[in-house]
Amino acid sequence: METKPGEMTTLSEVMEVLKERGCDHELHFLKNGQLEDTDSGRIYNPAGMKIIRTYRFEGDSNPSDAAVLYLLENEDGIAGYIIDAYGAYSDYEGDAFDSFIRNLPVEEREW
User: Fold this and answer.
1) Cβ neighbours of residue 9 closer than 8 Å, sequence gap 6 or more
2) SS3 of 53, please?
3) Mind listing the pLDDT tens digit for each residue in 62-94?
4) Cα–Cα distance between 25 and 35 in angstroms, integer?
5) Dist. CA 55–CA 38, nearest whole Å
6) How many CB atoms lie within 10 A of CB 46?
7) Which of 87, 45, 47 is nearest to 65 (CA)?
8) Concatenated DSSP letters for 15-37?
9) What is the DSSP letter of 106?
């Protein structure tokens, strides 16, 4: 899903392509360090999870429009995504989410 000039420059465009490719599991970070699939309620432990792609989006005029989409995969090959806003606009309070993301192994590749 390589981005070319004029293509897939918005979060919604990337989300649509991911959905077409079967990656429509939105994950939510829980305070206990686990991830929850928002549709199924399935809980994932961070062990066995890895980041396989990161997408960054910059707001043209409003810093609250800036976000990061992390595409994650578990050891069973199930992929999901988690979205977070930058800095002060982050969806998660404290340092727990940042620490969680920094500690996940990264295996950057196409999905």
Assistant:
1) 3
2) strand
3) 555 688 999 999 988 889 999 988 766 666 777
4) 11
5) 20
6) 16
7) 87
8) HHHHHHTT---BEEE-TTS-EEE
9) B
Sheet with strand 50-57: strands edge to edge: 50-57, 67-73, 79-85
Which pLDDT value is given to residue 36? 95
Between CA 15 and CA 10 the distance in angstroms is: 9
Q: Which residue has the tokens 């809980």?
A: 43
Q: What is the pLDDT of residues 2-55, one digit of tens each?
A: 444 345 578 888 999 999 998 889 999 998 999 999 989 999 999 989 999 999
Query: Apex CA 68: angle with CA 65 and CA 70, to 5°?
Result: 150
| Amino acid letter, 108 | E
Return d(Cα 110, Cα 66) in angstroms, integer. Answer: 22
Q: What is residue 76's predicted lDDT score, i.e. its pLDDT?
A: 87
- Per-residue pLDDT averaged across 90-105, rounded? 84
Task: Give the number of other Cβ atoms within 10 Å of residue 13's Cβ.
Answer: 13
Cβ atoms of 35 and 49 within 8 Å: the answer is yes
